[in-house]
Amino acid sequence: MSIGQRCRGSILAVALARAAFLPASADAQEPYYKGRTISLIVASNASGGYDTYGRLLARHLGKHIAGNPAFVVQNMPGAGGIRGANHLSNVAARDGTVIGIFDQAVFLDQLLGVPGLRGDVRRFNWIGRLVGNSAVLFAWHTARVKTIKDALTHELIVAAPGSSSRLNWTALNTLAGTKLKLLTGYEGPSTAKIAMERGEVEAVSQPWSVIKAEHGDWLRDKKVNLLLQTGETNPGLESLPRMIDLAPNEESRRVLEIFAAPTVVGRSFVAPPGLVAERVAELRTAFTAMVKDREFLADVERLNFELGPLSGAELQAFFAKDYPPALIERAKEVAKLAGN
To answer: What pTM did the predictor assign?
Structure first.
C-alpha cells in the first residue's frame, strides 16, 4: 500500500469516527408529534353536532399526523361558543397541541360587535371544515306561498325559534322585500314543526341533511315546498334560490353575505393564532388526508352524517374578505331590528 493510500485511509477513518459522535441529521429526528397529545376544545356540551363532529375528527386525525398523537376532547360550553373561542385565542398553548371547534356564528358575532369575544376570529389558523350548514326554509303544502318569489307579494308565517332564523328572515324582509311574518317563542325546530302541522305557522327552516333524514316522507308526498337556502348550495338543490340571490342590488347582496357567513363556517376546526406555519401546514395536510380515508368515510356513513369538506386555506381566504364599515353598520341595523 502506498503512502498516499495509507493517508487517505487514515483520513476516512477519522471522519467516520467523528461522524459517530455528531447529532442525528434532521431526516433522522423523531416526528414533532410523537409522544404528544392534542387537546380538542369543543365549545359546546357533550351532545349535538359540534361535539359529535369533534369526536369524529378526534378518532381519525391522529393517524394522519406523523408521530400519531393521541387526542383528548374537552368540552367548554358557554356564551354561545364565545368562551371556547376566547380560550383558544388567549389561553391555549400555541405549539400545535390544542385545536378547537366553536359555534359557527362566532364570526358573525364578531362582525356585529356582540360583546364578550376577546380576539379576532380572522387571526385563527383554520385547519378545515367537515360540513357546512346551509339551512332550507320550507313551507307546508297548504301555504299560499309555493316559491320564495311568492313571499315578495304574500305574507308567510315563519317559525323563528332561534337567533339565527330571526336574523336571516329579518334581513330578507329588510333587504329583499319579503313578507315573512316571524313567530318566536318555540323551543326549537321540533316544536315549530308540530306547530306547522297544526296550522299555527306555515314555514320552518332546518339543515337540509336533517330534513332528508327526519322527513323524507314529507318530501316524497309533497307535503312541503322548499323555498330557500340560507347559504351555500346544498347537493341536489342546485336550482333552489339562496338568500343572496334575492338581493336587489350589490350592497344588499354583500350584507346578506354577512348573515350567511355561519353557514360557510359550519363544523370547522381551528388552531390558535400565532402557531408556526410548519405546524399549521402539518395539521391541514392531515385533515385533507383524513377526509379521503376509507375508515373515516365508513364512520361518517355509520353515523349517517353529511360531509362537505373545505380546506383550511379556503376557510382562511373566506375570513380574509374585506367588509367595508358601511356594510357592517347596515348589518348591525338589521340585527337591531331582529332584536339581537
So the answer is: 0.86
